[in-house]
Each structure stands twice: as structure tokens, then as C-alpha cells.
Amino acid sequence: MRSSLISILISSILVLAAPFAHAQDMVKPESLPQGFVIIVKDETGLANKDNPMYIAGTLNGWNPADPDSILTGRSDTRWQFIVDKDMKGVTLAFKFTLGGWDREELDGNGNAIENRTLPLVDRSKLAPGEKPVIELSVVEFRVPVPLSEQVRTSGVYRELQVDGDVRRLEVRGGSPSMEDATRDLLVLLPPEYDAPKNQDKRYPVLYMFDGQNLFEQLPGVAGEWNIDETATQLMKSGKAKDVIIVGIPHAGENRIREYMAYDVYKGVEPEGDACIRWVIDEVMPRVNRAFRTETGRKNTAIGGASLGGMMALYGVTEYPDHFGSAIVESMPIFGESAILDAVSRSKARPEAVFFGVGGNEISTDPSDDARNQKYVEFTKSLSKKIGSRRVKVLVKDDASHNEDAWAERFGEAFTYLFSK
């Protein structure tokens, strides 16, 4: 009996002591010099060898189709991504995609998820040099709908949910990878464009990239710029000239290639120059035939954000005979030296260039402050190199890399280029 009591007592002590058998050392995976492994279970079953899963985030400039960020399929049907470098503790914010933001992961209720971050890991359980394994799952991916199907229902155009007079204008082509494509330009006309008193009036034109998210929020698009409300109000109030604004839809899954204006991104063959030529040779003549435009570089501006901003910068510096001014928002921070050199070599002298940038372009995590500041400093460097007659840099310290930020700055950008 005594022996049994002693055994029970010993067992009880061991059970109570078990949680304290080793001292936990919980750390961020990004702080481990050996890196880490992410294992993902695709509960949707949509990912396969021909349609792989990607990780997009601060690791790769939020590129949803980065060829260096493809997850590897495993024999257990899960997907794997290995980070084998020291991230110096910089927080990894990320999402999973199937190769585009129109195919990003969702929360199971059709809503985009918040940016992911990695959970802490117990360093005390790792052997020297061992990479921790972090297991995650994706419950839903956005199923893309072609733009042509988004704007048509049963062969009939759906009604646009916009303020002001926005009209569609069908065009064909694009960069070489999109030469057989058909897409609709979305054209915002100034107030009273059709009034008898204005029948002979002609208007300057602003061409904007990523036309899908300018005037309304379509399915599969993260947000909108609210340009229809903002520009219409500014024109009606007399704070800005009457201007025709043309939204040029991007090429969907080929957006990165089509909007890559400079050869600065590994694994992506740039087609930006061909895309600008298409805008000049096909889009602009089509708009000029359909609407009463004022032509010439002084009456023609170009704009965009992120890669669209890169295209606007390229257009106004490489094709100054066609574009006199530009809106350049959230210029990406890769290939900075090559882009600065290209802008410096340009003989263009734009009429006006508006640069917009946020203080949280990467994320709001304090560990990303240095990379956030890099966005700001690169933008300021571009503004000094561009040689514009008028140039403005607007920095919003609390702004991120998204449509809300670009919408907030658009009014100031528009009046800077087109103030009366």
C-alpha cells in the first residue's frame, strides 16, 4: 500500500512538472537566421501543377504572380514554401493567391482576408539550424470573372454604378501578350458635355491605368478611387478644368508583364513600352474619334498607381511628345537605380508631375519602417530627377498601398494638373 502511494505521488509530481520540463522561448520566425517552412493545406482543391499557389507579401513587393514565390506541391497534397534566408526580424505580411489579385484567398464568406502574419514559434524545441514548420490552410479563393463578363449580363451591358456620365468604348489589343484581347475603356465625361452650349467645346484628357478600379468597385477588385465623385465635384465647383478621364482596364493575369515599363524585375519580361505604344496608336485615336478632345501634349495627361504609376512615369518621360503631365502614385521600390538612371537620361520636360506616396506603403508594423521610408525617399529622388516645370510630392504619413490612399490624394492630384 505504501509502495502504491509513493508511486502515485511520484507520478503526480511528474505530471505537474511536465509543463516545466523545458523553458519556452517564443520568437518570431522571421528572427531565425536559418529561416522557416510554411506548409499550406488548400481546402478548395483549386491549386494544381498547372495552376499553382503563390505567396504575395512584403517579401516580394506584394507581387501576386512572382515566379520566385510559387509554392511547391507535396506528395501529401499540401503546398510548401521555404524561406531560407535571415529576414533580420522584419515582419512578413502576406496572402496566398493563384497568380493574381483576382484570385486571392478569401475567408470562406467571399470576403478578402486581412494580411496574414506568422505565429510565434518555440525556439527551444528546434535543433541547431532546424527550420520551424508553420502549418496554415486556405478555405477559399476568389474565382475570377473576365472583365467582359463582369460588365455584360446575358449579352446586355449592366448598368454602371457611378456618379456622373461614364461611357464604355470598346478597344482591341494591348501589349504583345494581349494583342487579341477586347476590353472596354471607361470614359468619364465632364458635366454638361452634351449641353447645346458646349457642342463645340473640346476638352483635355487624362488617361488612367487600372481602369477597373477608378469609378466603381467591381467583383475581384480591392477598392476604388472614387474618381467619378471627386472629379465631377471639382469640375462642377470650378476648382478644376473640365476634363475627359479615360480608364484603361488592365490585362488581368498579364497585368504585371503589361505594366512592367522597365526591365527591372527578375522573371518578368517587360511589355510596358509596347503597352504605351498601344495607348498612343490605338486608344488615343479611338477616344479622339469618339469624343471632343483637345489634343497635343499640353492637353494630355497620364496617371496610375503602383505599376500603373510606373507606366505613367515611363509615358511622360519616354513619350513627351504625347503626354505633357502625369499622376504617379505609390511608385514601386524595385529597380530603383535603373529607373532613376532612365529618368535622368530622359530629355523630357513635363508640364507638371504629381507624386503621391504613403508612410505605410509596406505595412504599419514598426519593423517595416525602414522599407516604408525607402518608398518615400525613392519618390522624392524621382521628383528631383524628372526635370518637370512643376512637380509636387504629397506624402501622407498614415497612408498605405491601396485604393483608399489613392482616392484620398486624387483630388489634390487632379487640381494640381488641371487647376483653373
What is the gist of this entry?
This protein is an alpha/beta fold and 420 residues long.
SS element count, helices: 9
Compute the separation of the termini in Å.
100 Å
Which CATH C-level class of the largest domain is it? Alpha Beta
Instruction: Label the overall shape.
Output: globular
Structural commentary:
- The chain is α/β, with parallel strands linked by helices and 420 residues long.
- The protein has 2 domains: 18-141, Sandwich (Immunoglobulin-like), CATH 2.60.40.10; 147-418, Rossmann fold.
- It contains 9 helices and 20 strands.
- It has helices spanning 2-17, 147-150, 227-237, 255-258, 272-290, 307-318, 336-345, 369-385, 403-418; strands at 26-27, 36-42, 54-57, 72-73, 79-83, 94-97, 105-106, 121-122, 133-138, 140-141, 152-153, 156-157, 165-172, 182-189, 205-209, 244-248, 300-305, 325-329, 352-360, 390-400.
- The strands form 6 sheets. It has an 8-stranded mixed beta sheet with strand order 13-14-16-15-17-18-19-20, with helices on both faces. Strands 4-5-2-9 form a 4-stranded mixed beta sheet, with no helix packed on it. Strands 1-8 form a two-stranded antiparallel sheet.
- Strand 19 (352-360), helix 8 (369-385) and strand 20 form a beta-alpha-beta unit.
- Helix 3 (227-237) runs parallel beside helix 9 and helix 7 runs parallel beside helix 8 (369-385).
- The termini are far apart.
